[in-house]
Amino acid sequence: MIQLKNVTFHYPRRKPVFADLSLELEGNHIYGLLGKNGEGKTTLMKLMSGLLFAQEGSIETSGEKAYLRKPKMLEEIYFLPEEMYVPSITIEKFETVYAPFYPRFSAEQFHKYMEMFEIVDFQQNMKKMSHGQKKKVLIAFALATNCGIIFMDEPSNGLDIPSKSIFRKVMTSAADEHRQIIISTHQVRDLHSLIDTILILDQGEILLNASVDQITEKLRFGVVETEEEAQDALYKEDTLRGIYTVSENTAHEESKMDIELLFNAALGNRTKIKEIFSL
């Protein structure tokens, strides 16, 4: 579990990224952390993992004060950044050196995920691998640690289309009831089938924190043919297939959530979204 209470954070000589922010993230969820560029998605994950320190408020991760970065907490979290550093060693040596830091690391799982990513040569020097190949190795390693909390910053960036499909399969096979995964992403369509809870950051606050079931209970996603049918929509988007809409689900109809439409609807109707979800 991760708890933030009345957190204020700012970089030197800049306006606050967060002011009096409170948030609680429970286990057994794959969170999709969304927000425009510069809204603080990476900053928030670094605060949760103790890589940045809040000026005010408290942050607890796995029952420990995040900023202390005690070994008990560090063995329970893994942070996969968008900009990766890899040492000039082989994949085999990387596993040998770093696996002992994680008590529940599974070599069997690591090799399984690597095989799924079609990487079989463990004698490759990681420094000489392409960006996409490096990312596959680190994703496989992160999941094989079996940490209770995994932070992933834009994990599908740098992966080609076939690899993105494999990534979803790897993530699905790795999900379990004891794991909490927070994924910051702009590539929402890459992760649509994985995410079960949506977090939207906007203007330094949590605009939305809801499960997919809660979202589809309160909002309806549909396609209509005329502007008249779309007049009450919170958001509408003209396409060749018709007008895509997001509306308040007053009739309690079933529909399939579209993350991209949801994001646009939320940013365009902040007050109404907060009212609907009682934030």
Tags for this model:
globular; 2 domains; 279 residues; single chain; alpha/beta; 6-stranded mixed β-sheet
Structural commentary:
The protein is an alpha/beta fold. The chain folds into 2 domains: 2-203, P-loop containing nucleotide triphosphate hydrolases (Rossmann fold); 211-276, no CATH class. It has helices spanning 41-48, 71-74, 91-98, 107-116, 131-144, 161-174, 212-218, 259-268, 270-276; strands at residues 2-9, 18-25, 29-34, 56-61, 64-65, 77-80, 149-153, 180-184, 197-202, 205-211, 219-224, 235-239, 242-248. The strands form 3 sheets. The chain has a 6-stranded mixed sheet, sandwiched between helices. Strands 2-1-4-5 form a 4-stranded antiparallel sheet, with no helix packed on it. α5 runs parallel beside α6 (161-174). The chain is globular, with a radius of gyration of 20 Å. The chain starts with a strand and ends with a helix.
Which helices and strands appear, and what pairs or packs with what?
Elements: E1 2-9, E2 18-25, E3 29-34, H1 41-48, E4 56-61, E5 64-65, H2 71-74, E6 77-80, H3 91-98, H4 107-116, H5 131-144, E7 149-153, H6 161-174, E8 180-184, E9 197-202, E10 205-211, H7 212-218, E11 219-224, E12 235-239, E13 242-248, H8 259-268, H9 270-276
Parallel strand pairs: 3-8, 3-9, 6-7, 7-8
Antiparallel strand pairs: 1-2, 1-4, 4-5, 9-10, 11-13, 12-13
